[in-house]
Design brief:
Length: 387
């Protein structure tokens, strides 16, 4: 009996060790794949141009996975060394607080939650097991710890002044990068408008009203009802306007997009996605929706994964960027990779020069490439972040 008990304890201990230390990296390695199609070095023209850029990416879910982002990783797409190598001036790190089981782009309910298993496996504090607001706060804390451990290489941005000061520093030292926080889905408020203040104080500066399911505030493009803004959603839009928090329309249903564009008094973004005219699916924007975002003064981040651009290489990304630029003007187009968002991408943050080269081959001028690769996003943030 004693021997059986000992064996049982050892077996349970091994299971727990596997759950805590082996399962999370295995899951990420399977979900966040980088499949390079590049077979040669970038041209001298592309390399020289890329070195002059200030690259900005509007969406990465890298905080979710628990990797040490200060160290160069062997999985996923983003960490501080790779950002610096790829000349990334600013990455927006987003908090994913809930994801439904059986995730798809057509129809998801809100009554399941796979993130709780990741939270348990990574040993998040108990307060984050059930509260989505606490999950967002935990991930904000993870970002701050990463910045503190980076020896000044990752600069946290909260205000337009922070961004201006950082960009001045970067003129003298390109071996630094920066990060800003966003949230994927209004459900991170736990249904309480007062939590907007809590999340703002933690450093979050944009929120998409929905993710893969309808929530208390708005309908999702992949939800069940796919409705528009609810009365509480209209209150949320108003409060975000007052606080100069940026509204992200990624994942929003057509009705939500229409309602927000009619209700907001400030420009909006689509942090990551594509356009139906270049890649038709339920997730992407119609031409009229894209024009509405541009008319608001906003920018559209073109994603890097197949559902966004109908292709698995950088040429597919460039084609979607070309379609967007022709439709709304190159001043309203940006990068929205969705790096580390449980998607497969053709490059990581260290190799964004490959996209610069693809844009050159697609006929974009150097000035247009500077705008699309970062200056449009920087202009938008300098104009719309809190002062």
């Amino acid at each position: 009996m004693k021997k059986l008990f000992s064996r049982t304890v050892i077996f349970v201990a091994l299971l727990l060790l596997g759950f805590f230390f082996i399962v999370p990296p295995l899951v990420e390695r399977r979900l966040n794949r980088v499949v390079s199609h590049k077979v040669s070095s970038p041209s001298r023209e592309a390399a020289n141009l890329h070195a002059q850029l200030r690259v900005v990416d509007l969406h990465a879910d890298s905080l979710l996975w628990g990797r040490d982002l200060v160290q160069r990783g062997t999985r996923g797409a983003v960490d501080v060394p790779r950002m610096i190598e790829g000349n990334v001036a600013l990455e927006i790190f987003t908090a994913v607080t809930k994801s439904p089981r059986g995730l798809n782009y057509e129809r998801n309910g809100s009554n399941s939650d796979t993130i709780v298993w990741l939270a348990l496996a990574q040993r998040w504090p108990p307060r984050a097991w059930s509260s989505l607001t606490q999950r967002a706060l935990y991930l904000a804390g993870r970002f701050q710890k990463t910045a503190a451990a980076s020896d000044g290489r990752l600069v946290p941005i909260r205000t337009a002044r922070d961004l201006k000061n950082y960009l001045e520093r970067r003129k003298q030292n390109v071996n630094i990068t920066a990060g800003l926080l966003g949230i994927e889905g209004g459900h991170a408020l736990d249904g309480k408008l007062e939590n907007l203040e809590v999340l703002f104080d933690a450093g979050y500066r944009y929120i998409s009203l929905t993710h893969f399911f309808d929530d208390e505030f708005a309908g999702s493009s992949a939800g069940i009802a796919k409705g528009g803004l609810t009365p509480r959603g209209r209150q949320l839009v108003e409060r975000m306007n007052e606080k100069r928090m940026i509204i992200d329309l990624a994942h929003s249903s057509p009705r939500t997009i229409r309602d927000v564009l009619a209700a907001t008094r400030r420009p909006v973004i689509v942090s990551h996605g594509g356009l139906k005219g270049a890649c038709f699916n339920n997730r992407n924007l119609s031409d009229e929706e894209a024009r509405g975002v541009a008319r608001s003064g906003g920018v559209i981040g073109i994603g890097f994964w197949e559902t966004a651009v109908c292709g698995s290489d950088v040429q597919a990304i460039a084609r979607s960027i070309r379609y967007a630029a022709n439709l709304v003007g190159s001043d309203h187009v940006a990068l929205g990779s969705d790096f580390d968002g449980a998607v497969t991408v053709p490059l990581d943050s260290a190799h964004l020069v490959d996209l610069t080269e693809a844009l050159l081959k697609n006929g974009f001028t150097p000035e247009q490439i500077r705008a699309i690769m970062g200056e449009n996003a920087l202009r938008f943030l300098l104009e719309n972040l809190p002062e």
